[in-house]
Amino acid sequence: MNESGAVQTVDATVIGAGQAGLSAAYFLRRAGLLPGADFVVLDHSPGPGGAWQYRWPTLTYGKAHGVHELPGMPLEDGDPDRPSAEVVGGYFARYEEAFGLRVRRPVDVTAVREDAAGRLRVESSAGTWSTRVLLNATGTWDRPFLPYYPGQETFLGRQLHTAGYRGAAEFAGKHVVVVGGGTSAVQLLMELAEVARTTWVTRRPPVFRSVPFNEEWGRSAVARVDERVRQGLPPQSVVSVTGLAATEAVRDAQARGILRREPMFDRITPHGVAWADGRELEADVILWATGFRAALDHLAPLRLREPGGGIRMDGTRVVKDPRVHLLGYGPSASTIGANRAGRAAVREVRRLLDGTRDDAREPVALAAPAG
Ligand SMILES: Cc1cc2nc3c(=O)[nH]c(=O)nc-3n(C[C@H](O)[C@H](O)[C@H](O)COP(=O)(O)OP(=O)(O)OC[C@H]3O[C@@H](n4cnc5c(N)ncnc54)[C@H](O)[C@@H]3O)c2cc1C
């Protein structure tokens, strides 16, 4: 039921209005589906921007890895010194407006389940939708991953995940142990080292890649992640496939000793961390830069998971249930991948909605307004 008490019936439901969800909404509109009537976009965040609205303020647009534009509208005035949260949030807001995507927010989708009529029932904080197909684009930000180490609960200092990091200033003069081998760990170490003492610990020695990332390399990295999700295994982190970018700033930090890495500690003590060889280190803060997992709990009633722990995929389509597409999952977990996933999913979804007639609906010409 929606707020008026009735179950609202739509052809397609998009959950999540980040890069992947907005791309899907754009292609649904272009395929002739009407926003708000034929399809609905639901998002539980307070404003536009997907997960970008939560990124720490010191992650300026210039420091982001490379944010690909959404389909059909350029990102102009991307001031490199402004926080990514503002730049991307503003761009997404203009995008939603320009294409009339009518994103419903804040709407928290709590469960998706099969209904009696062979449709999918989308239950949310704002009521229920009955949909023929589901384009799930819920990203990872809502599921920060924190590994467990013995003694973790005894630590008297502060523990936080990157999702809760708001800048280095509050750590001035402290000793911060940064855990994790990804891009976020490297960026935060470089920021923190300006005001704090830092120690970097990772499970495996980090691999820095000095060769510039080119298209071919990107394609082969995506293919490796794709191979895993085709087998129903959980997706790997992107860095485990691509390595870390050895930018000029990174090389400078290496030269200054900021990126000297220690092996992973074995336990946490009330005052710091300790290794099996008896070495102990006192610390005020443990910052877990240990990544995120796909936020898919609301899909649990559909039982999509394989024994391997992942969801077996064919492109964006879930093999167990072809009505369900996952966008921004596995190989499409990048801004460019999310765009492509939106396009590919809508192409398949149209076939499902229109039978085999690809041209059953007239494509709609969409143009972004100037400026
Ligand atoms: C720190 C950091 C920096 C990154 N930098 C880059 C970069 O520079 N370039 C790049 O290509 N990629 C980058 N990435 C990866 C990036 O997150 C993705 O590329 C892309 O932005 C993700 O888009 P998305 O649409 O899949 O997910 P998100 O942007 O996370 O959007 C998901 C949306 O779904 C909503 N949602 C989730 N669960 C529910 C629910 N149950 N009900 C309703 N709504 C829900 C959320 O509120 C959110 O708005 C970065 C990731 C991180 C963590």
From TrEMBL:
<dbReference type="Pfam" id="PF13738">
    <property type="entry name" value="Pyr_redox_3"/>
</dbReference>
<dbReference type="InterPro" id="IPR036188">
    <property type="entry name" value="FAD/NAD-bd_sf"/>
</dbReference>
<dbReference type="InterPro" id="IPR050982">
    <property type="entry name" value="Auxin_biosynth/cation_transpt"/>
</dbReference>
<protein>
    <submittedName>
        <fullName>NAD(P)/FAD-dependent oxidoreductase</fullName>
    </submittedName>
</protein>
<keyword id="KW-0560">Oxidoreductase</keyword>
